[in-house]
Amino acid sequence: MNDTAEHRETAGNDVCPPWVLREYAILADGERAAVVDPQGRIVWLCAPRWHSDAVFSALVGGGGFFGVEPEDARHVWGGYYEDSTLIWVNRWVTTDAVIECRDALAMPASADRLVLLRRMRVEKGEARLRVTLAPRPGFGADRLSAPRLEEGLWTAGAGGLRMRLTGAARARWIPGPTLRDGFRLREGEQHDLVLELSTAELGPPPDPRSLWADTEKAWRRSVPDCSALAAPRDARHAYAVLRGLTSSAGGMVAAATTSLPERADTGRNYDYRFAWVRDQCYAGLAVAAHGPHELLDTAVRFTAERVLADGRDLHPAYTVDGGPVPRERRLALPGYPGGTDRIGNKAAEQFQLDAFGEALQLFAAAAHHDRLTPEAERAVTVAVDAVERNWTLPDAGLWELDNHWWTQSRLSVVCGLRRVAQALPDGPTARRCAGTAEVVLAETRRRCLRPDGRWRRAEDDDGPEAALLMPLARGCPPADDPSNAITRRFVEERLHEDGYLYRFVHEDIPLGEAEGAFLFCGFTMALATDHLGDRARALRWFERTRTACGPAGLFAEEYDVRQRQLRGNLPQAFVHALLLECAVRLNDASALPL
User: Fold this and answer.
1) Which of 42, 315, 446, 582 has a 20 to 30 Å separation from 326 between CA atoms?
2) CA 202 → CA 114, 149, 177, 191, 197, distances in Å?
3) Residue 390, Ramachandran bin (φ over 0: left; ψ between -120 and 50: alpha; else beta)
4) What is the radius of gyration, based on Cα positions, of the chain?
5) How do strand 329-330 and strand 317-318 relate by DSSP bridges?
6) Which regions of 494-593 does DSSP assign to beta strands (E)?
7) Which sign, positive or negative, has the C-alpha torsion 496, 501, 507, 510?
8) Strand pairing class (517-518; 500-501)
9) Cis peptide before 177, with omega less than 30 degrees from 0?
């Protein structure tokens, strides 16, 4: 029953203090994501799509959030994902009650309309809940039109968006503008809220029960059975995260957020709401290791489209529908503590040779499952042309640094060419790939392999480099090549701390002071170690690295080993992809051979 009269209205209710990153959960439907804090406040939501301006940006110091939280200030919080979904259940225990709020972005999703579901329920006792809706479109720059209450539905508009809220008919709008409501629920009672944001006209009012049923059904269809894998629950969750980050247009964003700092006050905070070709290939390869699931086909389609469209001028990143990444610019917001707000990403203009190598590996994996489309087969030829023209040029590499003759980029290309040569029927394309691979490998050995058998980081850089573990894990060079064990051991000795792995050495700065451990590298070390025949050590790397997450089981890009905190944007798609691949390869001998 509604309890507006007893609802407390204080200015403090509109303040969303930041939490450490490990405490946040996300909702995602493929087209956008919402970030939820432990108090039940949605503090990040871009609409209508991933790279659109935010309607709720409290996460990065802006305005706007959507809160459902207990009135009783004396409570402890918790939460969990329903298995194999990104349906998040907030859970609060007060002195007298146990309360849950089930949250989801409705599926199947539409690119021009998002539907946010929130279902409050009291499991034990009786409780009062406070609802606060404070939309601030355009990162707070767009003014919300005067809201109207018609037939129990609140409607408003701003910045080209139409908004409708169902389930809060007795709420009040106050200056801000902010909607406030309060609910008293007894044991077993529940109440639904539905928020819609759309660029198109809104249709008939939604039915919450149907929306929940369709969303549950969509998740059941999306996530395959992972019960035979190592860490099956984590593997299912990793797949759900990848599905939630993948648009119907094919692109998978690198992460759901922007500007969450990798290191406080260093300027290393970026916009990851775009689709990196390399990351998409990592996800597709991880899925292919398990089976010919939907996300493999999606990755192949998006990657092939980009290669066919841009050829040798392939960009590292695109919007999820294949458009150009906007130029990088700053926002006039305080930012998440330790960071500054920026949108767009200048890395999209770099040349990254290894993206072609990863794309060829993806196409080969698709061919193994008989899922190589005619478009992807044409993309193979275009990618090989691009490699032949570009492989001698310096590039920005996996870590998107200054242009150098990076070893990992060349070995990735060699691996991709060899995989395609093995996957395609014997013919001109297969023979061309095999021949080009040998030419690239021979020159890379000449420039980048030391006399003692260890691979250099780059032609002009002799330091340790965790990126070299990826081609090693993929079988380039072959497992019996002495350089593999020598390089793996050197990387472990120089870049390892307490079971976690860093990317490389930052001049004379100690590892943990320069940046956090890179979780992608920890999982790659597990794959490389297993490829060299040491399953026990590989499992130790896997188990240690997968502990570096918060209660929601989400991974960021980096992990502060000393403080045991996440660093950077979240959830980081390629970390979840490598977790999934490790879960397959460290348990299933029938996985696609490397």
Assistant:
1) 42
2) 11, 15, 22, 22, 9
3) alpha
4) 25
5) unpaired
6) 496-497, 500-501, 517-518, 558-560, 565-567
7) negative
8) unpaired
9) yes
- The closest of 252, 245, 515 to 399, measured between CA atoms, is 515
Residue (of 173, 184, 21, 159) closest to 99 by Cα position? 184
**Is the separation of the CB atoms in 159 and 195 below 8 Å?**
no
Contact present, 557 and 575 (Cβ < 8 Å): yes
Q: Which helix (H) or strand (E) holds 342?
A: strand 342-343
| The token pair that represents 451 in the structure block | 């006399």
Q: Measuring CA to CA, which residue among 523, 584, 529 is closest to residue 548?
A: 523
Q: How far apart are CA 474 and CA 411, in angstroms?
A: 10
DSSP letter, residue 494: H
Residue the block writes with tokens 């310096």: 394
* CA–CA gap between residue 524 and residue 530 (Å, rounded): 10
Cα–Cα distance list, 314 to 85, 123, 273, 276 (Å): 33, 53, 18, 11
Query: pLDDT tens for residues 532-542?
Result: 999 999 999 99
Say if CB 533 and CB 577 are below 8 A apart: no
Q: What is the separation of C-alpha 77 from the centre of its chain, rounded to a whole number of angstroms?
A: 25
Q: Cβ distance 75 to 94 under 8 Å?
A: yes
Q: Cβ(302)–Cβ(358) under 8 Å?
A: no
Q: With beta carbons less than 8 A apart as the criterion, state whether 459 and 449 touch.
A: no
Instruction: State the number of CA atoms in the 13 A half-sphere of 31 facing the CB.
Output: 19
Could you read off the pLDDT of 282-338 as tens digits, one per residue? 999 999 999 999 999 999 999 999 999 999 999 999 999 999 999 999 999 999 999
Sign of the CA dihedral running 486, 414, 557, 288: negative
Which among 226, 259, 419 has a CA at the least distance from the CA of 333?
259
DSSP letters, 283-336, are HHHHHHHH-S-HHHHHHHHHHHHHHHHHGGG--SEE-TTSPPPPPPEE-SS--S
Distance (Å, rounded) from C-alpha 341 to C-alpha 173? 29
Enter the DSSP assignment of 153: E
As given in the structure block, the two tokens for residue 30 are: 């493929």
Residue 69 CB-half CA count within 13 A: 24
Sign of the torsion angle spanned by Cα atoms 220, 555, 351, 429: negative
Cβ 355 vs Cβ 314: under 8 Å: yes
Mean pLDDT per 10-residue interval, the chain, length 594 residues: 35 72 98 97 97 96 95 95 98 96 98 97 97 94 88 91 96 89 97 97 94 98 96 97 97 98 90 98 98 97 98 98 96 94 95 98 97 97 98 97 97 98 94 97 98 97 97 93 97 97 93 95 98 96 97 98 97 98 83 48
